[in-house]
Amino acid sequence: MLPYAAYLRVYEPVIAFPEPLRSVWTAYAESGARPRRAEALAAEHEEAVRRLASATPVVAPHTESRHAYVRRAGGMTFVCPWETRLRSWLAFAELDGGGMPAGLAGALVPAAEARRVAAEFERWKAGGRTLRPHIRSSTWHVPPAWFTLFDPGERCLLLGDGPAAPADPEDEPPGPRGPAGTWIAGAGAGHPEGGGSNGPTTAPPTRTLIYVTTMRDARGRLARARRVAAAGPEDGPTAGELADVDRWLAEFHPLALVELDYGGLVCLIDDDRLRADESVHETAVALAALERGEVELTVAMYQRLRARWRAVRALESAN
Q1: Chain mean position to CA 81
Q2: 293: Cβ–Cβ under 8 A, 6 or more apart, which residues?
Q3: Which DSSP string corresponds to 56-103?
Q4: For the chain, is the Cβ count within 10 Å smaller at the N or the C terminus?
Q5: pLDDT tens for residues 115-155?
Q6: pLDDT band at residue 73, thresholds of 50, 70 and 90?
């Protein structure tokens, strides 16, 4: 798990899980010992670093994680399991089948560990269990297809030196509400979108940019994007990318919540640029313009989007 990654997460209501998982996740959500939302990403990353930095690197843990992200909305509790082992298996399978030279792959993953991971994954698949993780990640950028799921009004930006913000975005503070039950960015003093004009490029725990919506709204917007983008320019989300996200979302409970978290990417973007990031809005404008036949406006919005994320992705190869 790399630190410079964004995440697309699905939170399912606890009622969507069969027993005994339903009781397990209900008790977990009420536990005072679990990592809170504000610290969970750091805890998940630390867990991965410990595995990979050991004397014998461990690509995938021997047992599945017992942790999850938690949200509460509309009087319901939602959980997004970390599923660290499943996600590690899937990442390893992608690496192993991605055409990487054998010598380089062997240097990254010891042969004995590669055999263990492959054998465990095969046993899991043979048991007919799910290969669908609740979390998708993307290093060094946010895929354009992810932006189509959200509305600009569902944005929540917290910067490290603003007024006091809620200690944990999973809680339900009083005040204006977005469609998914989360707060609306900038709607009150307790949920600022402000911050210093030249903010740090390292992220304190409260510095984050997220969007949250309902599964119904996410899939409705995605269906519209698939119809519109099919006739659009190549600069935007491709039909294949949109279809892939749609297939993934279709496997979850219809009452689920969908979250886009800029995650570790906020470490690469200063406060001014985070505040100016309107990627979801630009994507929505591009698709609306395409529906009206205004191709030039669509291209202009996609070019702005591409230029913003090209600058971030360029940091991958920077010294």
Answers
A1: 13
A2: none
A3: S--SS-SS----EEEEEETTEEEEEE--HHHHHHHHHHHHHTTT--HH
A4: C
A5: 776 777 677 677 767 778 999 999 999 999 999 999 999 99
A6: very high
